[in-house]
Design brief:
Subcellular location (chain B): Cell membrane
Helix content of chain A: over 70%
CATH class of chain A: Mainly Alpha
Order of helices and strands of chain B: HHHHHHHHHHHHH
Number of strands of chain B: 0
Strand content of chain B: under 5%
CATH architecture of one domain in chain B: Orthogonal Bundle
Oligomer: heterodimer
Number of domains of chain A: 1
Structural class of chain A: mainly alpha
Protein name (chain B): Peptide/nickel transport system permease protein
CATH topology of one domain in chain B: MetI-like fold
CATH superfamily of chain A: MetI-like
Radius of gyration of chain A: 24 Å
Keywords (chain B): Membrane, Transmembrane, Transmembrane helix, Transport
Membrane topology (chain B): Multi-pass membrane protein
Family (chain B): Belongs to the binding-protein-dependent transport system permease family.
Radius of gyration of chain B: 24 Å
Order of helices and strands of chain A: HHHHHHHHHHHHHH
Chain lengths: 300, 327
């Protein structure tokens, strides 16, 4: 694990990703200090371009886009992160059980996993959301999690199957450890890098899905999030009238979270799968081997 | 070509799951949606229409199992019910009108992204650690993480509204009559540019990432060394030896991603006001036209399953080892 952290620190991409995500989280945390204006208050005329007074301009309703942006980060990030964790927990548990127990348990769980995997998620989400009417953050979280755990479950399952017959697991079984203890104490710690990838990937997916649902108008329109900001801006035809700040602010927020998480995920992938590495160490090695190849030719 | 029975089992369960969702969700929701739909029909609410809606959403005195059997037999006859918004049109008619446009968008975007993404992935793996790889590979991961809504809105604002390079709505110029002539096709092409460019970044990112990692593991295989030993040029080894086999995981991934592509196309069509399934779904969800929403889910599930089946078949064609095994 120590090696992993060192590698993480040496990677510029990961550090950049961490800084972006941390900065956005801090912004959400300190929203009352950074944006004392109530995001729902009318502070100016409709669709004012950015000024010193209103850094990001105003919406059609004359609300301050900057303060909506800062306050909107709270539910957007909270729902994204919580859903990501929930998806990962579901996927990991199902994958562990299928991989460890094998046989009929595995056959059933694997069948369900693959079936949920091929059902198109967004149309299913829209079906569920449209029957539920406008849905609050918790319902959005549940709906997204219940339709998108299979990716993680598949990865966890194949890893667990590879670990199941290793010596330390057989030893634990022979000592008479109960199954739950073997799964959670012996096998689970070996899956930590995989779970890391899974969490970051799930958060990315959750944010994409949440934005999509809210943009389509299934979120609570009174609740200020980046997704509902996009929805309201679209409804007031902000783009057509040229009010780019109204759409640009929430879009930039979502794109930045995506960017930060993607940079983190890229590094996690390289840690878990050294074959994929392309960092400074690898380019050094490639340079050396190229030199070595050239030397005999030069000697000839 | 034989397809493993297990795979067919998976597709069957997935399809059954979609049907069961369609059947149970409206019956589980608090407050029946039926009254709302009848109210929406207004003066068009003939006894026949009311009866059809009631039967479909469970507002009838009949045991639940009987309702389910009726529902399934209806589906077998391609009866998806009547649209509430466009009554007396049936759901099948409403969906048929727009399915073609979505199929066109999605297929074009997939073919375009396959060419771009696979080449980028192959070259990145070939020059692993080089400057090209160091830039393209992280960039692809970033592309996957940015929702299509954002890309769509940015494209619309930049190329549609500000620069006015491309038209900002419809599938073709509404002044034109659809026909087999050059002007019409040109118009269709011109209107599809921005939606396709919006759908592609996610796909390119996914294809590049998958291709790169599968290419890296293929490059260690004996047959690649064999190709080199034969004295073939770099390009020949890269494309006809390595890339050809490295394509397999990309194909599997493509089939699994199709659901996400449909999700992206829904949003893209709404942003660009493009008359495909997504826009139909959006108008249906605003109008609470539940039969259309349900039909949509079934249609998209069927399309995804069909694509998966197609990939299972293609797998054998592309990978000679599987072909041998099955023969």
């Amino acid at each position: 694990m120590n090696f992993g952290w060192q590698l993480l620190w040496r990677q510029k991409k990961a550090v950049a990703g961490l800084i972006i995500v941390a900065a956005l989280c801090l912004m959400a945390l300190f929203a009352p200090i950074l944006a004392p204006t109530d995001p729902g208050e009318r502070v100016g005329r409709s669709h004012q371009p950015p000024t010193v007074e209103h850094y990001f301009g105003t919406t059609k309703m004359g609300r301050d886009v900057y303060s909506q942006f800062v306050w909107g980060a709270r539910p957007s990030l909270a729902v994204g992160f919580a859903t990501g964790l929930f998806i990962t927990a579901l996927g990991t548990i199902i994958g562990l059980f299928a991989g460890y127990f094998g046989g009929r348990t595995d056959a059933t769980l694997d069948l369900i996993t693959n079936a949920v995997l091929v059902i198109p998620n967004i149309p299913l989400l829209i079906l569920l959301a449209s029957f539920a009417g406008t849905v609050g953050p918790v319902a959005i979280m549940m709906i997204i999690a219940l339709t998108s755990w299979p990716w993680g479950a598949r990865m966890t399952r194949s890893q667990t199957m590879a670990l199941r017959n290793r010596e330390f697991v057989t030893a634990a079984r022979m000592v008479g450890e109960p199954s739950w203890r073997i799964i959670f104490v012996e096998i689970l710690p070996n899956l930590v890098p995989l779970i890391g990838i899974n969490i970051v990937g799930s958060i990315i997916y959750a944010i994409v899905a949440q934005t999509t649902l809210e943009y389509l108008g299934f979120g609570d329109p009174l609740n200020v999030t980046w997704g509902t900001m996009l929805y309201n801006a679209q409804n007031s035809s902000a783009i057509i009238v040229g009010a780019w700040w109204d759409i640009g602010a929430p879009a930039a927020g979502i794109a930045l979270v995506g960017l930060g998480l993607a940079l983190l995920n890229f590094t996690f992938d390289e840690i878990a799968n050294p074959q994929l590495r392309s960092g400074p160490a690898l380019s050094r090695w490639l340079r050396l081997s190229r030199l070595r190849k050239r030397e005999p030719e030069a000697a000839r | 070509m034989r397809i493993p029975l297990r795979r067919l089992g998976v597709y069957f369960v997935a399809f059954l799951f979609a049907i069961v969702m369609n059947f149970t969700v409206p019956r589980l929701m608090p407050g029946s949606p039926v009254d709302g739909m009848i109210a929406q029909l207004g003066p068009r609410a003939t006894p026949a229409a009311i009866g059809a809606i009631k039967a479909r959403f469970g507002a009838v005195e009949q045991p639940i199992l009987g309702q389910f059997v009726d529902y399934i037999t209806g589906l077998a006859r391609f009866d998806l019910g009547v649209s509430v918004k466009y009554y007396p049109q049936t759901v099948t008619q409403v969906l048929a009108r727009s399915a073609g446009w979505t199929a066109f968008l999605v297929t074009t975007a997939i073919i375009f992204s396959l060419c771009v993404g696979v080449s980028l992935g192959a070259v990145a793996a070939w020059r692993r650690g080089g400057r090209f790889d160091a830039f393209v590979s992280p960039f692809s991961v970033v592309l996957i993480a940015i929702p299509p809504v954002i890309i769509g809105l940015a494209t619309l604002f930049t190329f549609g509204v500000t620069l006015r390079w491309f038209p900002v709505g419809y599938a073709y110029n509404p002044d034109l009559d659809p026909g087999l002539n050059f002007t019409f096709f040109g118009s269709v092409f011109w209107h599809a540019v921005m939606p396709v460019l919006t759908l592609s970044p996610y796909l390119i990112g996914e294809f590049q990432t998958t291709m790169r990692s599968s290419m890296i593991s293929v490059l260690g295989e004996d047959y690649v060394t064999m190709g080199r030993a034969k004295g073939l040029g770099e390009t020949a080894v890269m494309f006809s030896y390595a890339a050809r086999n490295a394509m397999l995981p990309v194909l599997t991934n493509l089939a699994l991603m199709l659901g996400a592509v449909f999700g992206g196309s829904i949003v893209t069509e709404i942003v660009f006001n493009y008359p495909g399934l997504g826009l139909t779904l959006f108008t249906a969800s605003v109008a609470r036209d539940y039969p259309v929403i349900q039909g949509q889910l079934l249609l998209m599930t069927m399309a995804t399953l069909g694509a998966n089946l197609l990939v299972d078949i293609l797998y054998g064609v592309v990978d000679p080892r599987i072909r041998e095994e099955r023969a």
